Sequence to fold (270 residues):
Amino acid sequence: MKPKSKILIIAGSDSSGGAGIQADIKTVTALGSYAMTAITAVTIQNTTGVKSIVTIKPKEISNQIEFTSKDIKPDAIKIGMLHSSNVIRSVISSLNNIKIKKIILDPVMIAKGGAKLIDNKAIKLLKNSLIKKVSLITPNIPEAEVLTNIKIKTRGDMIYAASILIRMGAKNVLIKGGHLNSKFVEDIFVNKNEIRIIKNKRITTKNTHGTGCTLSTAIATFFSCGKTLKKSCELATKYVNSAIGSNLNYGKGHGPINHLSSSFIEKKFR
Fold:
């Protein structure tokens, strides 16, 4: 079967395989597309936490992005972990050079175990520059709180935070509601013209490592295949929910999800 589209993933590596580049490649492949990568950092981690982070030089990150894209032009880009302001500057420069329009940004800041993955200068540059370059930004609630400097405890707070990000220059925002204590998980899709609440049943499990990476990559994949951005968000949340529901139960901490959850993959483009 020929892949439906080509996705360039700019993100960090996760040695445990549950998140980062590894989760992204699994997602793109499971959804029938072709994955390429530009690795920004190597994290040494498992389901219980992050042991250390080895950074990649900004120049080499740019080389990966531009050299790969020069040969195989991506239909969409997913951006994950960018750990420093110098890395963000190099990625912005490369994005300007390769001129890909469909870009999804997952502003990875904190690992599931609580380790901080990005410095304060990088957060400032992400807010002031990078979010203006992308089609969609997908923060979870802790990330949205960092980006907007407000506390988020309700659906109304989520919508308000999204509106702040729109005023900062974001074109579209998806704030993920998994951190709120509610029967259903409500993700909020917002742009200047609409507000859409995407509701899925909450699955009680500690095994949710890599859900943010998986969601943003699934959105990029659906978006690259011609779905609207809103529809891509809806389909991607269903895919992630199905993957969580498999409950692999690997590891002693926050375990990974099942990217090969076949119940959804067979119906993915309906």
